[in-house]
């Protein structure tokens, strides 16, 4: 028997590859796309920017060398465009430094940042989208995360000229894209040359990379400080361009609370959890989809490492989260769930505002109502999850389920 579930707003990636075998000797599920999704993926065009287009040539070349230049013909073309864009980043970065270095160093944030925490596909995108409707808040745009080296001198004109470069929706779901749309700051850190688990998607045939950078626990003290300095620099550069409380969302930050507090001691946090029975297939599809569209070699029918990695990542993430939340002062963390947020977004957001003492909810409410009206017809994805996989998820993610009320 197979359970079928709907994916609510922040839908998952999809692919035509058969489902992988569940790890740990469980019975094999019927052949399905890897990720258990029923819908077809949204493909990327040949010239659609990949995450790696934000890198300088030296950083991308280093990744090529590590992966022995294992490129498909299409990957050769993509690499040529990445290196070409990299020249633009070097020149633009020099211009931004010359014109704005002192302003970036001296700028003060209007308010402590607010970090949206939670595992991939747990509703972090939805929560982020809702929070940024407050006109007192700001956020990193997609362009700023792709071009952190020079967006102060290039964003206004480049984004007006090139909206056609981006697809209408993300490859894994029906969320709209655009240079002005909110984006994960993890991609900015990648573009700035920092290691990240996300680099796995460039050469997925070779399996997971940069695992220590998920929690920052296994990296050297100097690398940890380099990461903190890069995040601070990126946030301060946005603050030069726009006023407001910065709302930042990257799922790996869930495992980096200690480092985030070192970077921003007065930061606020809101964490969102979700039923692990949906979280698992949705995350598998996310990783599968991004391996296909972001990889620079020919996609494989399936990647045997994805399901074990997804299981391990959540365990590592919430080991770190459980150890570090005690470092957050009282009144600076609110926890919610995806199910409660979908049921009554305004109730949950009011609880977030009250719990974090953000103030101004009544003034924010009209913008929130307008956004909820605009997105009321969002189409969700569906999953077909074999019973054997559900049992495995209950076994491996039991602590998460218990911690957030899904047991």
From TrEMBL:
SUPFAM superfamilies: P-loop containing nucleoside triphosphate hydrolases. Pfam families: Sulfotransfer_3. InterPro entries: P-loop_NTPase, Stf3_sulfotransferase. Residues 1-37 are annotated as: Disordered. This is Sulfotransferase domain protein. It comes from Pseudobythopirellula maris. The lineage of its organism: Bacteria, Pseudomonadati, Planctomycetota, Planctomycetia, Pirellulales.
């Amino acid at each position: 028997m197979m359970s079928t579930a709907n994916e609510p707003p922040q839908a998952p990636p999809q692919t035509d590859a058969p489902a992988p075998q569940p790890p740990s000797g469980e019975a094999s599920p019927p052949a399905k796309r890897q990720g258990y999704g029923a819908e077809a993926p949204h493909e990327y065009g040949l010239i659609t920017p990949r995450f790696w287009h934000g890198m300088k040539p030296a950083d991308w070349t280093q990744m090529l060398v590590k992966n022995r230049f294992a490129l498909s013909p299409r990957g050769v073309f993509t690499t040529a465009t990445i290196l070409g864009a990299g020249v633009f980043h070097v020149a633009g970065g020099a211009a931004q430094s010359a014109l704005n270095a002192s302003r970036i160093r001296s700028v003060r944030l209007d308010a402590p940042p607010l970090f949206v925490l939670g595992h991939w596909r747990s509703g972090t995108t939805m929560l982020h989208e809702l929070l940024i409707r407050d006109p007192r808040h700001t956020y990193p745009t997609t362009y700023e995360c792709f071009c952190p080296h020079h967006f102060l001198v290039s964003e206004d004109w480049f984004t007006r000229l090139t909206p056609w470069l981006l697809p209408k929706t993300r490859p894994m779901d029906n969320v709209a894209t655009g240079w002005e749309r909110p984006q994960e700051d993890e991609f900015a850190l990648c573009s700035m040359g920092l290691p990240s688990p996300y680099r796995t998607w460039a050469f997925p045939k070779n399996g997971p990379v940069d695992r220590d950078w998920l929690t920052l626990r296994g990296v050297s003290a100097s690398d940890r400080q380099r990461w903190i300095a890069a995040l601070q620099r990126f946030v301060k550069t946005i603050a030069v361009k726009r006023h407001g409380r910065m709302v930042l969302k990257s799922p790996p930050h869930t495992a980096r609370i200690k480092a985030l507090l070192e970077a921003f001691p007065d930061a606020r946090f809101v964490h969102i959890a979700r039923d692990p029975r949906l979280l698992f297939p949705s995350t598998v599809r996310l990783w599968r989809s991004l391996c296909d569209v972001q990889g620079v070699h020919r996609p494989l029918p399936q990647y045997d490492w994805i399901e074990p990695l997804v299981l391990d990542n959540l365990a590592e993430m919430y080991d770190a989260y459980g150890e570090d939340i005690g470092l957050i002062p009282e009144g600076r963390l609110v926890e919610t769930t995806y199910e409660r947020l979908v049921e009554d977004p305004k109730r949950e957001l009011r609880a977030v505002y009250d719990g974090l003492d953000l103030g101004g909810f009544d003034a924010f409410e009209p913008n929130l109502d307008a956004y909820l009206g605009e997105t009321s017809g969002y189409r969700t994805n569906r999953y077909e999850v074999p019973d054997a996989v559900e049992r495995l998820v209950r076994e491996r993610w039991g602590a998460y389920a218990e911690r957030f009320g899904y047991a």
